[in-house]
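thread from #wetlab-drylab

HS: before we spend reagent money on co-crystallization trials with pyridoxal-5'-phosphate, can we at least see a predicted complex? here's what I'd submit
DV: go for it
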Amino acid sequence: MHHFSYRRGVSHASVLHAEDVDLSALADAVGTPFYCYSTATLERHYQVFADAFAGAPDTLVCYSIKANSNLGVLASLARLGSGMDVVSEGELRRALAVNVPAERIAFSGVGKTKEEMAFALDADIFAFNVESEEELRGLSEVAAARGKNARIALRVNPDVDAKTHHKIATGRAENKFGVPFERALSLYQLAAELPGILPVGAHMHIGSQITDLEPFRNAFALLTELVGTLRDAGFEIEFVNLGGGLGIPYRNDEAPPPLPTDYAALVKQALGNLGVRLLFEPGRMIAGNAGILVSRVLSVKHVGAKTFTIIDAAMNDLIRPTLYEAHHEIIPVIGPARGTPNVLTDVVGPICETGDYLALNRPLPELHAGDLIAVMTAGAYGAVLASQYNSRLLVPEVLVSGSQHCVTRPRPSYDDMLAAERLPDWA
Ligand SMILES: *Cc1c(COP(=O)(O)O)cnc(C)c1O
């Protein structure tokens, strides 16, 4: 469910809108390419996820900032009471900047620096998700030196196959994440002895874009077993963090992934009676469908039997197709006249890389220079992964709410881009 749909527009009979905003008019105002996010969609996804756990024991949804860290997006979610899952000091500062209470912030990540630990301790965050013995010892040192106690959950790697793209699977033994299940108890025992460490939770996150409940079921069974083992050993486990990872529909021609309510039913069945607070770290599930990338066609090139639609967005703006072989639906912003035939085309950017494409061999209504297209489901792992490769200006982000819009991250100028760098004296 999202709030991008065709409606009668300012100058055309059928124009894609973001809520009540005409995207053709917005493109004229902001310039292309740009990301556009829908507040109503973000809010709805957060609410659907949170509501799925209504009636379950104490739960805390910590939106995973790395999916989309735009301050307007974060502020919209913070307003609904969302907690945040952060993986760096930068993300923690973003959460604090939009007034997320520290007691709703969890700090994940396989490589936290001492400086980041100190900053998070001073902010009094809810908990650290600790990923190794070395991190545990380092955190203990930093906490003890500051007279603080770090509440921790050990991130346990359950060695389950999340059945997702190999670059976003995190719960296999060969992945860098977490500690092996068999080592967990001895590390909790170590944690209990270390100064400044309170081992009060358990954490797992097995991957992203998971479209089958089975891997979750296996992971939750292991977590339940772990909590039992820890309690038998005398640990008071207050919370269990189930991570994120629930998949979303990217294609119109595929069966949709499990609904949040299906996921929640599984959670309640597996962990509902443990008497622990349940934390969740959904990212993609909240932001994915709430964003699109709007781009303009620069030219259409015919080479033999092939057609290339060259657009002004590129892999530096949205790298998911290149990095993950990801599929994004692409639709024209101006609704095509009935009966317009589809032609097969590669939709490519201007970057000097063969991997610079947003779609290959895609049936699309015939496009011409100047036409606008929307790359759908680009709200998660889109703008956050953007770069200035080829010295292209960083893509702007626009947040819509009803008929209002705000350019929450403006496009920098070329002067801004050059002014960010320094020349050495000797050059
Ligand atoms: C990336 C990440 C998430 C969010 O994953 P989604 O698939 O976007 O829900 C949650 N927790 C941790 C620890 C992560 O690294």
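DV: DSSP finds twelve helices and 21 strands in the chain.
HS: ok that's useful, forwarding to the group
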